[in-house]
Design brief:
The complex is a heterodimer of chains A (290) and B (362). Chain A contains 13 helices and no strands. Chain A is mostly helical and 290 residues long. The C terminus of chain A is likely disordered. With 362 residues, chain B is an alpha+beta fold. Chain B is 30% helix and 32% strand. In chain B, the strands form four sheets. Chain B has a six-stranded mixed sheet with strand order 6-7-8-3-9-10, with helices on both faces. Classes of the chains: A mainly alpha (290), B alpha+beta (362).
Amino acid sequence: MSAASRRANAEPRWVRWTLLGVGLSFLFFFLALPLIAVFVEAFAAGVPAYIAALKDPEARSAIWLTLFVALFVLPFNVVFGVAAAWSIAKFEFRGKALLITLIDLPFAVSPVVAGLVFILIFGAQGVFGPWFAAHDIKVVFALPGIILATMFITFPFVARELIPLMQSQGKDEEEAAISLGASGWQMFWRVTLPNIKWGLLYGVILANARAMGEFGAVSVVSGHIRGETNTLPLHVEILYNEYNSVGAFAAASVLALLALVTLLAKTVVEWRMRKETEMLDAALPPGKVE
Amino acid sequence: MSIEIRGIGKRFGSFIALDNIELDIPTGELVALLGPSGCGKTTLLRIIAGMESADAGQVMFSGEEATHLHARERNVGFVFQHYALFRHMSVFENVAFGLRVKPKKERPPEAAIRSKVMDLLKLVQLDWLAERYPSQLSGGQRQRIALARALAVEPKVLLLDEPFGALDTKVRKELRRWLRRLHDDMHISSVFVTHDQEEALEVADRVVVMNHGKIEQIGTPDEVYSNPATPFVYQFLGNVNVFHSRVHGTWADVGADVGAESETVANAHEGGAMAFVRPHDIDIEHSPVAGGLEATVQDVHAIGPLVRVELAHQSELIEVELTRERATELALVKGQQVWLKPRQVKVFALPGAALEEGGSGI
């Protein structure tokens, strides 16, 4: 390209190629290669061994537990996320900044610490431990503990996604609905929810990915009871430590597949959201003309 | 339905948005709440609608207490500055919303909803847009749909918050005349908020001028324009030249000359006084006139049908508006020495002194 025909703000060709090269090789070595390696290792002993590894009762139990926990946690995420985003975006109250900070807490705290907190609260020597023990309810080293830890870790996703969206939409439409005689529920179902549905779905997908992949917090509270409290990520670790590489990578490939599905769903939702946002932008009033 | 507002007060933290507001809006009137931004006009409208609660005072609809009624029970139609159309619903569904959310017992059958919505869309002359979405409409069309939506529930009162504020000048003028006709056809009481004095003066039966959470004056458009009760109203409704008696001793004489009672002017003098003269109430003469103010022409602009002349009197700038004919006759040039003669002056005592109205016309 001659200097004359180059746009004034364009970088030299070698700069662009270098940047592109650095970016792409990073992507290859840190993202694509590991993903390929997972599948190569999983099929290293052939397809039958792969299928056998997944048919193993402990592997199947881990897959089901992971899916169950993720599905169980999602409704709570949705309800909490919408409620928190609603109160932050549409109301003024004392301690709003504190609430926003608290919502981010699970992002800031190490998952291991989060898990330990639940041990301290619900464990045998914990605050509520004796009471639960007396009533024969197992929280820690059982399913409830795993669910609690996962819920804690995934709480921020939906709220974080919805707060800016709801703030940008304002409360005019809700007020219009109320002045037209709608009840609170009618307003929510007919006006608010349709306006936030794509953002909500996006938050749910992110929360779901995290719920299925969570290791640290769950590892602390689960107790690693095979076939009972082992989630898929924990299962991978156990097999790997036992030098069962085919089994470990087969299980890991399931996680990777779940991640790919999540990625696809996320892309579709993002695309829909962008279309919706364009519509929203077009729906914004033209600039004030004085 | 008449609206009575009794002693309404509202604070946001330490900011006093409304201070003991008293206002009667008789049935069938179109009333404008006019004032600069932050004067409390929108807050007052939202309190009438029930979207904001007052700290003190009462709102009565037709003499009945409505202060504690929820917004959805007040049966008021509310039109927002930014339309607030439901963006994911078609125009038809937007207008039908108020009917569809009625309790089952009161909800009209589907066919009745359909015909009612189409009637309303015809009323706002947009029935051909029924299947479109809000994002596909122009600003003016959106605001008319918002009006149709508000009218669907047959409100007793129509409240409009800067309804034309986001529109361009031409559409705004069309739409406000159309609103006036619509109001006359619907036989309801309407209150609209505006910061545009031209809009308020043109459309409203009565204008309520507000400032700093207080009502400055209530009157017909003609009353508030030609007989402003306070210096604020004078300055807010149109351009005005202000003269302080201490600085411009001669203008008090001018006031006396043109008929202001000399006693009033004398009284005002003790505490200091301000004289208000509209730019179009000043005439320019080439030769000295009795009580005239000597001034130098600084600039002459032709603005549409008017010619605006800026003059300097000592260090003060004075604005005068002349008709094109008069300007041609005078043939003013920059730097020319002329004499100003007011046709109408209004004198107010300075804040702190008792308010004295010493103005009168020739």
